[in-house]
Each structure stands twice: as C-alpha cells, then as structure tokens.
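Dear U.,

For the methods section draft, I wanted the exact inputs and outputs in one place so we can describe them consistently. I've listed the two proteins in the order they'll appear in the manuscript figures. Please don't edit the token lines directly; just add comments below if something needs changing.

First protein:
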Amino acid sequence: MTAFLIDEMFPAATAGLLRENYDHDAVHVFEVGLRAADAESAAMARAEGRAVVTENVADFSAERDAVLVFVLKRNLPAGGAQAKALAKVLDDWARAHPRPYVGPHWPRIV
C-alpha cells in the first residue's frame, strides 16, 4: 500500500481516516512537526517512501524525485466532509496505482 504525507491545506483528520478506514500508512505534516516547509515535506516523503498529497503545484514543481499527488480543494466537498472525501479519493488512487511512479499524479475525483 502507498504511504502518504498529507500537506497542511488538507484536514489532519484525512491521515487518521486513511489509517483507520483504509489501512494506509498516512501522516499529516502537523503530526510530524512540519510547518509550511515544502522542501522539508518533500525530503521527508522521499526518505520515508511517502507520496506527498498537496494542492501546491507551483511549490512542488521543482521536485523530481518524489511521488506527488495533486488534489485541488475546490474539487472536494467543503467543511467536515472534506477529510472523508479526500481519504476515499486517495484510497481509490492507491489501489489503482500500487507502485506509483516518481512525479506528479492527478487522481480522478468523482
């Protein structure tokens, strides 16, 4: 299964839902003490074999050796439903891509 590092713009609850409901190894940047440091997030993701889940395309565009999963918040429900919807999107994506290539990914949001 794919391991995830969830970026700051998404609810921290997403990581918990991925762990509890879908059995993925997932952490939120706040859980591991990262604060708005995209280079540090990418470095941690590489070191731990995690896919970075973010909507910051521009901030991560220079990364060449990390799995990047881009999700735009505007395509997810607002409020409390966002974490649950994102966890489902990421689980579906991980099942479809059990060995993701290094580089950008855009999961389909239905």
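Second protein (the one for the lower panel):
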Amino acid sequence: MITSLTIRPETSADWPAVAEIITSAFTAAFGESAEAELVQRIRKAGLIEIALVAEQDGAIGGHIVFSRLDVTGDGRTLNALALAPVSVTPALQRSGIGGRLIEAGHAVARERGFDAVFLLGHPTYYPRFGYSAAGAAPFRAPFGGDHFMALALKPGTLDVASGTVAYPPPWGL
C-alpha cells in the first residue's frame, strides 16, 4: 500500500504523462488501449467534470476521469457521471492507488452535487466502492449485464422503475 500519495486535480501539464499511464495500464491489462484516445475525445468535447491524478514524489502514477452523462430516471433528469477510465501505472497496480482515486473522485462528485455514477467495469472490483449491476439494471443503455454498474451518490437516486443512459458522441457508441 502506498502511503505518501497526493491526489490532486489534473492540469494540462499532466496530459502527456496521463496519456502514457492510460496506455500502459490498458495495454498491460488487455493487450491494447483505446482508452487514452477516449479521454482525449471526451476532453476535447468539454465533457470532463472531474479528472484527478495520483502523484508520488513528483511522478504521476494514476489517473481517473468522471465525465458528463445524459441520464433520466422515471422521466426526470439525473445529474450523472460516467467513470472511465481509472488507470494506474502497471508497476504500481494493486497498491491501493486506484481505490484512492475512486474514493477521492466520489468525494468531489458529492461536493459538486452529482446524483449518480455509471461505469462499465470489472464485476468483482467496483462493488467494493458501492457500485452494483442491480443499481444500473432499470436503465436502458448501450451496455448491460454484470459489467454495467451504477452508484447512487444521493440516497434513492437509482430507485426508479425505468430510465435511460445516453453516452455522448465522443464515446463512439
């Protein structure tokens, strides 16, 4: 576990290091990475609401993005975010950095009044942070199954009969 870690907002000066981290993390995990390009498209479209980096001794070792997401539930608009991606340099993975980035991002999202966060991710990793497929189940979206999950940042937000999740065009869905 890393103890001397600073979580801070991303700056434009961080972008080259962030692209490198995203690419290395997803290439190591999946053999390829389109995630860095996704972040660039979301950034260019002005949809990023929260972007944080994890820094240790002046070096960035992790990154997370929460971007604007169009969500309705029972006919009302939810102030929702998409979490994607969370990336940690391969040498630092399994050290707690990803979890600290997720928790810090949730804290900022709550402070800013967001209602919920949706993601497509590993079904055994994200539930430890409160995400569930059951929370996302009432929402029609391009994704489904146990990899599509949601987290209510405000109690009752996801207690709907039906809803929709529409990812903005930069997602390419």
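Candidate sentences for the figure legend, describing the second protein: Residues 72 and 169 are 17 Å apart (CA to CA). Strands lie at 6-9, 48-56, 59-73, 76-88, 116-120, 139-140, 148-152, 163-166.

Thanks,
Y.
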